[in-house]
Design a protein that fits this description.
By secondary structure, the chain is of the alpha+beta class. The chain contains 2 helices and 4 strands. It has helices at residues 2-29, 81-103; strands at residues 34-43, 46-53, 56-63, 66-74.
């Protein structure tokens, strides 16, 4: 009788594992409308969250009072850090040249 109970218990566990695997696979295929890119805890149940939705980046503030949309911007292709530095150097150079021309 003990062997029958063990076999039945193992069968139930196997069925539950199979159902869990199917549900996990189905969930993985479901496209997500919202993706959390980054979150930062500010303490005391407050946080900043950057999320992506429909090609837009959303900056959200979260607190005890609720969630607030702080700002949005279109998602742009991520650029290498060096390219951003090059742009900054070019802008600084242009500012210096313009300030020289104005001073003359």
């Amino acid at each position: 009788m003990g062997a029958v109970m063990q076999s039945a218990a193992l069968g139930i566990v196997a069925v539950l594992c199979g159902i869990a695997a199917l549900l996990a696979r189905r969930r993985a295929k479901t496209p997500r409308m919202l993706e959390v890119i980054e979150s930062l805890s500010l303490g005391n149940r407050r946080a900043l969250v950057v999320a992506k939705m429909n090609g837009e980046l959303l900056v959200l503030g979260s607190s005890e009072a609720g969630v607030a949309l702080l700002t949005t911007r279109p998602e742009q292709a991520k650029r290498p850090f060096e390219a951003m530095l090059d742009d900054t150097v070019e802008e600084d150079s242009l500012r210096r040249k313009l300030s020289r021309k104005v001073a003359q």
